[in-house]
Amino acid sequence: MSWSPPAGWEAVIGLEVHAQLKTDSKLFSSAPRDFGAEPNTRTTEVDLGLPGVLPVLNERAVELAVRAALALGCEVQPISIFARKHYFYPDLPKGYQISQYEQPLALGGGVPIELDGVERRIPLTRIHMEEDAGKSIHDPAVTGGGATHVDLNRAGVGLIEIVSEPELQTPDEAGAYLRSLRSILRHADVSDGDMEKGNFRCDANVSVRRAGDEKLGTRTELKNLNSFRFVEKAIAAEIERQVDLLEDGGAVVQETRAWDDRAGRTTVMRGKEQAADYRYFPEPDLPPLRIEPAWLEEVRKALPELPAQRRRRYVEALGLSEQDARVLVEERDVADFFERVAEHHGNARSAANWVQRSLLEVLGERGCAVAELPFGPGELAALLDLIDAGKLTPASAREIFAELAERGGDPAQIMSARGLEAVSDSGELEALARDVMGASPEQVAQYRAGEKKVFNFLVGQIMKATRGKASPQAVQEVLRRLLDA
Predict the structure, then answer these.
(1) How much is the mean pLDDT over the chain?
(2) What's the CA gap between 132 and 99, in Å, rounded?
(3) How confident is the model at residue 220 (pLDDT cuts 50, 70, 90)?
(4) Distance between CA 460 and CA 457 in Å, rounded?
(5) Sign of CA dihedral 124, 125, 126, 132
(6) Could you give phi then psi for residue 350, rounded to 5 degrees?
(7) Residue 380, SS3?
(8) Which residues are registered as beta bridge partners of 281?
(9) Are 74 and 108 in contact (CB under 8 A)?
(10) Residues 198, 142: contact at Cβ < 8 Å?
(11) 187 close to 331: Cβ distance less than 8 angstroms
(12) For a designed S-S bond to 132, which of 122, 157, 289, 362 qualifies (C-beta 3.0 to 4.6 A apart)?
């Protein structure tokens, strides 16, 4: 059920997404970008802000940022300028962040969303490049009032900030926007998009106004939301907070707020900074970034297939439904897995059904990626081949799939070891059908008198006798022939 705003009010929401670029090294230094290393082991003199060092722009980061801009339909600017954005936190050793301000990398573009069967495009304001800050880790357990630890491994990692126009109206739309944007960035191979690892983060600007009013209300910024669920819950709570405040005669203060999931509310972090507070000026150690038209065209031609194109191909070339195609392309690794299963097996619809119902269920239960599963597309395709060959019933195939998901292995060997091969001998099935008919004379008489619904009871008795190892279709054919004789 979709979220609805308080009666008589509407919300105005704009999102700022920070996506780490999928480079080997950082934006201005040679330090590696890998996640999960020991604190402060992925830094150089540049990341530490030591005197006398100079930043050197990572060319691969520029290529990925341009690729993202093209994938989102932005207009890449021929010249963009890096600037110094000044603020003081322990995780920012230089005392400023290298970002882009007045002349960003790209303008315009948009993100397509689909909600309740309605599709629309949320326009973007800009995309600019910048370096990430480090990470402050607050430890309340330390005696004497707690302590803050600083890990600078993330400092200097290349980001793109994707800024939307304030044209979202509900938490559901914000969630749909983020899922669509992450899917596009992953398909374009620009960013890992893992919110859990902090390389896809969202700040939400939220304001409310009376329904029909054109004047924007005072906005607050919800900072560093790192899950889709948190984004939706935080925005909903903030809208309700602002409405309650205004209806009680209060005023919304422009400020930065954090989401407290345990309390189910937003809390004040600090007063909201304005651009003047950051004292932007052009970065003196970096020349303007110039994008040559010929190179831009090369990046455009090398763009991978994006979700909308892939979805259209699944419908038109593979015969899948629009809904099936939409589910499959949401995650790039799932779509890649599906395509390899369909290629090996030869039946795209069957592959789509198993990937959606079984593979996605396992991924959801375990919270893991496709690459972490103990089996691959070839094993699932082999399992589907056994079903098509009549050697496995769907029920037995689900048993084998559960073992594949747990330990991997060869489906044919698992079938033999467990004794799950389907009963397909027509003579054996006919003998079982006659036994069931002999033991159920009342149901046979009812069927022959026109009460066809008892047919399913008789089929069930035969399936029970085979312990579910017979093909339901073969059982129905044999039983119907004998009953109609």
Answers:
(1) 90
(2) 9
(3) very high
(4) 5
(5) negative
(6) -65, -45
(7) helix
(8) 84
(9) yes
(10) no
(11) no
(12) 157
DSSP conformation class of 196: G
CB distance 470 to 422 below 8 Å: yes
The model's pTM? 0.85
The tens digit of pLDDT for each residue in 15-34 reads 999 999 999 999 999 999 98
Residue 44, C-beta contacts closer than 8 angstroms, at least 6 positions apart: 29, 30, 31
Q: Please report, for the chain, the start and end positions of each structural domain, with discontinuous segments joined by +.
A: 9-294, 305-418, 426-484
> Tokens for 471?
């093909």
Contact call for residues 358 and 398 (beta carbons, < 8 A): yes
Under a CB-based contact definition with an 8 Å cutoff, are residues 215 and 208 in contact?
no
In a 10 Å sphere around its CB, with 0-12 CB exposed, 13-18 middle and 19+ buried, how is residue 194 labelled?
Answer: middle
With beta carbons less than 8 A apart as the criterion, state whether 382 and 343 touch.
no
Structure tokens at 306: 């994006």
Cα 414–417–418 angle (5° rounding)? 85
Residue type, 346: G
Q: With cut-offs at 50, 70 and 90, classify the pLDDT of residue 465.
A: confident
Find out whether 95 and 157 touch, Cβ atoms under 8 Å.
no
Tokens 């089996």 found at: 375
Quick one: three-class SS letters along 84-97?
EEECCCCCCCCCEE
Please give the structure tokens belonging to residue 123: 């326009």
